[in-house]
Amino acid sequence: MANDSTGEPREPPSIECLAPTASSLPLNLPYEVRIGLRYTRAGRRARRRNAFISFISAVSMAGIALGVAALIVVLSVMNGFVKEVRERMLAAVSHIEISSYSGHFVDAQTIMAQAKRNPEVVAAAPFVNAQGMFAQGDVVRGALVRGVDPALEPAVSDIARRISGGDIASLADGQFNVILGIELARALRVTVGDKVTLISPQGNVTPAGVVPRLRQFTVSGTFSSGHYEFDSTLAMIHLGDAQRLYRVAGPSGVRLRLKDAERAPQVAGEIASSLDAGVLVRDWSRQNPTYFAAVRAEKRMMFIILTLIVAVAAFNLVSTLVMTVTEKQADIAILRTLGASPRSVMTVFMVQGALIGVFGTVIGAGGGLLLANNLDVIVPAIERLLNVQFLPREVYFISSLPSDPRASDIVPITVISLVLSLVATVYPSWRASRTRPAEALRYD
Fold first, then answer.
1. Is 339 left (phi over 0), alpha (psi -120 to 50) or beta?
2. Position 196 pLDDT exceeds 90
3. Whole-model pTM?
């Protein structure tokens, strides 16, 4: 035991003397945590002495924050695009479609009544689907002709609210009116009130041979769903006119609207099991499987790529902690001399690295959510500042950047960031715990 200047025996310093004594830190914390906090929030003199290490720590924290924020913003924008496309698609496509393998239902009312027994179904309407060609002068365009009941169709489709120049009630039985998609009307060069000829692929057998079945229709309106595929190919006529023109005994099927479109696959399975055989039940996701599969694959790849950015930033902690361990060799030796175990030394540096990861993740998550929820304000401001337009309406059919942040994306992002940060601290902390006090103090 060493003597002080008066010759009295002097007690060796305790481990607690290396921990901060500021009242801002609770005294009941383990000394490993307190020392780790002290290294993280170094004082003014320590910052002057270790300016480069502090700079690397700040860069690591900023890198984690930027990576997390970028992940949240990008995935939110992708969710927004999917949501926007889905809403526009569901303006023309029903949530669930029930059709018959025979081509038509003799008693569609029974099918509608059975489907409505499911508590998720809020509306049902019959329809006739057929192919045809519209001719106006020398212009001919193929189209999907849909016969609808104007009284029931607004309950299962949003197209009725997107009709211009007229309304769906103009589709009166026997008047042979038609409502065209806006792009189809432009291709035919017709407006409301013009006449178009609908040519059915089924023909009439006459002594002169098979003659195509023709019928002149009056354009009573146009609609814009925002989805080019439907706006350029879809035409709606009255259900009775469609049955007479195509000579079918009943509707081709029944369209259903649900309380929640996301539950369409589960509800479709329930309805299919409750109906007789010979009935095909399809939900909206099965009608466009390629598009949604491509979006899911793209989102998965973007998640992986941007997670690598977070990983690079997280593993910058390795260099930060390695330099900290090198600089703190004397402190480590004193801790070991005073009785600290290698596990305790390892915990000290893991606390320091984990705090950097936690702060970076929290800052990134907060900033990412702030950006994702205010893109409708931020993007127009940048466009005005730079005098550019990122999303021309004539190309993308939307003028603003959609965003839909979801907890199902944000929670995995934050967890992965925290795990990567913790993993990055393991090796430097382990090296610190392997420090030999005699060798560390030899040149100090």
1. left
2. yes
3. 0.70
